[in-house]
Design a protein that fits this description.
Strand content of chain B: over 45%
Distance between the termini of chain B: 17 Å
Order of helices and strands of chain B: EEEEEEEEE
Helix content of chain A: under 10%
Structural class of chain A: mainly beta
Shape of chain A: globular
Helix content of chain B: under 10%
Largest sheet of chain B: 9 strands, antiparallel
Number of strands of chain B: 9
Distance between the termini of chain A: 42 Å
Number of strands of chain A: 8
Order of helices and strands of chain A: EEEEEEEE
Strand order of the largest sheet of chain B: 4-3-2-1-9-8-7-6-5
Radius of gyration of chain A: 16 Å
Strand content of chain A: over 45%
Radius of gyration of chain B: 15 Å
Oligomer: heterodimer
Shape of chain B: globular
Number of helices of chain A: 0
Strand order of the largest sheet of chain A: 1-2-3-4-5-6-7-8
């Protein structure tokens, strides 16, 4: 069977085994304590899925976004998960999350779109997170 | 009270130096598998700013050195430091990005071992007393 190839990476040989998502797991804290975006998140593995729970920066307390399933991706030719993406749809606001990990830092890009007719501009952020209390 | 607030009442930073007070404190390497700097402490001694470096391998305590401080066009802080520890000469170039200190460390080995010059770039987050 021929598979579609749109990049050279698409042609890499298939590696047996499941992606190792452990580099993504944990309770992550924004390095920027006065962020206007995401203050912290929890990434866990449940069954065969990766589940994330985000907390938005609030004026008083963090705002719990609840849980959603994330899709992990390997990086390069190894089975180590290099990142994930996920989506939250709150009805009036839809947010896409794109994350990658490097050297113990989780880099998270957040793309929020407003669908409520408020005229607010869609916004983007890219911030850094370290594991709460250090390593796993 | 934060360590930065502790500097209130101290002499102004040395002429030309940028005030690094917002960064004073302990910073921890995000990479727990690092072979190099695992922790650093930024402090103020009178009108000087200092760096105390702790590494993974012996000697783990590199001691305290005076640093030169900078601010970039976007207002972010940075510093550089030079260490001579045994046969290792190290230059650290650091900048701040959204609450992280990013350090590029340049190492030269003057022990005749022939080890090539080496650099690494790692990330440090502020140690939180609450976790």
């Amino acid at each position: 069977m021929a598979f579609a190839i749109y990049t050279k990476a698409d042609a890499w040989p298939i590696t047996e085994g499941q992606p190792d998502v452990s580099p993504l797991l944990g309770h992550w804290i924004n390095t920027k304590s006065d962020t206007d975006y995401i203050s912290e998140l929890i990434v866990s593995q449940r069954g065969g899925s990766v589940v994330i729970q985000l907390f938005g920066a609030g004026t008083a307390e963090p705002i719990d976004w609840g849980e959603t399933t994330a899709t992990p991706y390997v990086s390069g030719r190894s089975l180590e998960a290099g990142g994930f993406h996920a989506r939250y749809d709150f009805g009036q606001i839809e947010t896409l999350i794109a994350a990658n990990q490097k050297l113990g830092i989780l880099v998270i890009q957040v793309y929020s779109s407003f669908k409520d007719g408020s005229g607010r501009h869609d916004h983007f952020s890219r911030e850094f997170f370290h594991r709460r209390g250090g390593s796993q | 009270m934060t360590e930065a607030q502790d500097t209130v009442g101290l002499p102004a930073a040395r002429e030309g130096q940028v005030d690094l007070s917002p960064l004073l404190g302990t910073w921890v390497n995000s990479n727990d598998a690092t072979k190099w700097i695992k922790k650093l402490i930024l402090a103020r001694k009178g009108d000087l700013f200092t760096l105390h470096t702790f590494t993974v391998e012996e000697p783990t305590d590199w001691g305290e050195v005076e640093i030169t401080t900078y601010r970039d066009s976007g207002g972010e802080l940075g510093f550089h430091a030079v260490y001579q520890v045994g046969s290792i000469e190290a230059v650290f170039a650091a900048n701040v990005n959204k609450g992280l200190i990013v350090i590029v460390a340049f190492y030269q080995f003057k022990d005749g071992s022939g080890r090539p010059n080496f650099l690494c770039r790692e990330f440090y987050y502020r140690e939180s007393p609450s976790v």
